[in-house]
Amino acid sequence: MRLEKSRSTSVQILKTVRLDPFAGCAPMEPYLALAISLGLGLLVGLQRQWKVSEIAGIRTFPLITIFGTLCMMVGGDQQAVVCAAGMISIAIMLMIANVAKIRAGQFDAGMTTEVAALLMFGIGCAVGVGQTGPAIVATGIAAVLLHWKRRLHGWVDAMTDKDLRSVMHLALIGLVILPVLPDRTYGPYGVLNPYDIWRMVVLIVGISMVAYVAYKLLGARVGAILGGVLGGLISSTATAVSYARQTKLAPETSGMAALVILIASTIVNFRVLVEIGLVAPSLLKFAALPISALLLLMAVECVLLYWPLRKMEAQAADHDNPAQLKPAIIFGILYALVLFMVAAAKEMFGDQALYWIAGVSGLTDMDAITLSTAKMFNEDHIDAGTAWRVIMVATMSNLFFKAAAVAMLGSRTLLLYVACTFGIAALGGAALLAFWPQIDVTQLRFSDFTY
């Protein structure tokens, strides 16, 4: 019995070995972590070696990253202690290397390589505990920041005192004021929430600021098309006013100015879709098609107008920086006022009164009525059909206001261009308001468009 039992055990062991020749070997995850650490370290090390760094290069950075990963693997229950000890040891070695450089008369006040070395050790530790995604993202950010030294320094050197104040204002608007506002509803109709109102201010200032920064960075390279696109994202009304004034002094630029104004006004529809998607995604299912139809109509007009004018040049507009505290406060007040008026009109007079409010508020600003309408839809105060139609009426009203501004400030030729293009867009918008059915884009099927 003992002999047979021993023989059976031996056979079972042989079967196990044959079926799994790697039985007893360590799993592959640690080796994969080491490989990732090696790759991330090589990426940053390559950049530092290319910059001829004397502290660490293409060999040292991978070693530092792998060291961090190994510290986490062997740390067991004391990973935090091991990580801290490893970080201190790397810092000491960097200090020794800098002391040696100073004694050799090679003093360099920069600390970029040293900080990058400490960061890569931390990234190695992150890989060692399984945080591979954040480690890869952090390495990519580090590599880009290291490689863009001259470009970043050039941007900072090109900044004026006005630009720096704008950055501080943006930080004040989004990082200081927003967190301290109370997140509760005040007043009648339950729509005035200081935190929500200022959050919409941050959203609009953020969108405009991104476009403004792109506009400033591109400088003289901003042509008619890009100038119109960025102008629509910053402020289509300001773009129309700026180019209209230019044509008063130089009537020969009226055609190109009309193209820029039309492009900026077309981009307003895209901006409206973005705002709806961010604030009320469920409304976008109903509003996407009609607003996109108007966007497409105006885009076709842009193409038809661009073709005969493509060889003309346009002078860049002078946009004010959108990240200023006073305009932000004014927009916050305007948004709160429109929000209150929409709620009150809906309560007292029904949906029809909303169109009048949209017509008035849309004259100078599309953002307030768009955001307030989206918020009212989120709170089930208005239905989807009414919501997108209110926004469409505001769009038509905004076109009328810009045409009036052109009539007062621009040349007659510019007014002719704008009247024709905006008139076609207004007719298209009116047709959409009158005949567009209630459609949920998520319910559409290909068979709906085949006969």
TrEMBL record:
Name the InterPro entries on file: DUF4010, MgtC_SapB_SrpB_YhiD_N
Which top-rank group of organisms is this from? Bacteria
The name on file for this protein is MgtC family protein
All residue ranges annotated as the DUF4010 domain in the record: 202-410
Keyword Metal-binding attached: no
What's one Pfam family here?
A: MgtC
Looking up PANTHER family in the UniProt record yields: DUF4010 DOMAIN-CONTAINING PROTEIN (PTHR39084:SF1), MEMBRANE PROTEIN-RELATED (PTHR39084)
Stretches assigned to the MgtC/SapB/SrpB/YhiD N-terminal domain: 34-154
Kindly list the residue ranges recorded as spanning the membrane.
Answer: 31-50, 56-74, 81-100, 120-146, 167-185, 197-215, 222-244, 256-274, 286-307, 327-346, 353-374, 386-407, 414-436
Q: Which keywords has UniProt assigned to this entry?
A: Membrane, Transmembrane, Transmembrane helix
